[in-house]
Amino acid sequence: MFITQAFKKETDFSLILLDFLKYLIGSIIVFFASLFGQIPLGIAILFSGKTPNSESDIYKLFDSNLFLFLALLSFVFAMIGLYFVVVKIHRQKFITIITSREKVDWKRVFLSFGIWVVVSTVLILSAYFYDSSEIIMQFNLVPFLILVGITLLFMPIQTSTEELIFRGYLMQGFFNLARNKWFPLLMTSVIFGTMHIMNPEVEKMGYIILVYYIGTGLFLGIITLMDEGTELALGFHAANNIVASLLITSDYTVFQTHSIFKDMSEPSMNFEVFFPVLVLFPILIFVFSKIYKWTNWKEKLIGSKLDLQPEENAHFNQ
Fold first, then answer.
1. Known InterPro entries for this protein (predicted)?
2. 85-127, pLDDT tens digit by residue?
3. Residue by residue, what is the 3-state secondary structure of the chain?
């Protein structure tokens, strides 16, 4: 099973805590690798000659394409840090935090990617044609083409880094600590959701918007556990952020881009905010379950059965 691939058969609680300490240290290393990747952004702010007082002030210092590039650059270093932690500190093969299969199933990645690109694009276009007073077209060819290059090159790195940290590395780490599936699922979802607490939209809409982020983390965790790998989550997350970057932006989102459309409406808490969590994500789980014939839901999502296979030891470096 995917979540058990890094499991250590320790029974002494002190040894279990000691093993979990590696995950805390590993997370700190990844965090500092990410900070190192923010040095170019810091240098750019320094040379701008201005002192921003808030995150929104930083957006105003640079062209949105330049800011996006500098912001996403940190995830390249975070991914390098994660690779170092998994391979050198935990002595695992990196694929163990990606999938339980012998190699990455790219068909799963692209299926999930394609489904969410279509769904989210249809929703955005429907909103535009229904009321074009709140969503306007701001298409500008040259900045948009630059945006496409930055987005397609760096956005999958950003989303993959987040998925492999939360649905791979930390989920396996929390399983080693708790010896069940529900605790890693809930903990990674809550941490993933609260990680977005500094986003501008939280300031605009209030903390209730975190329900959407935590719900998204829960959805991604469920499909990861049921599918025995992160491929579906990787595809979905990449599609979500790429569409958000290229198709629509607003003045209160974390990334403000030269997208095709711009949402001019005032942010408000309504059913549309929770529609994905309450309607779309359950439908997607159902669709994926039928395509991949998922079974044994209770055990995979909340059980404590270890179900270790002898060949799983081969995933550890010698």
1. Rce1/LyrA-like_dom
2. 999 999 999 999 999 999 999 999 999 999 999 999 999 999 8
3. CHHHCCCCCCCCHHHHHHHHHHHHHHHHHHHHHHHHHCHHHHHHHHHHCCCCCCHHHHHHHCCHHHHHHHHHHHHHHHHHHHHHHHHHHCCECHHHHCECCCCCCHHHHHHHHHHHHHHHHHHHHHHHHHCCCCEEECCCHHHHHHHHHHHHHHHHHHHHHHHHHHHHHHHHHHHHHHCCCHHHHHHHHHHHHHCCCCCHHHHHHCHHHHHHHHHHHHHHHHHHHHHCECHHHHHHHHHHHHHHHHCEEECCCCCCCCCCEEECCCCCCCHHHHHHHHHHHHHHHHHHHHHHCCCCHHHHHHCCCCCCCHHHHHHECC
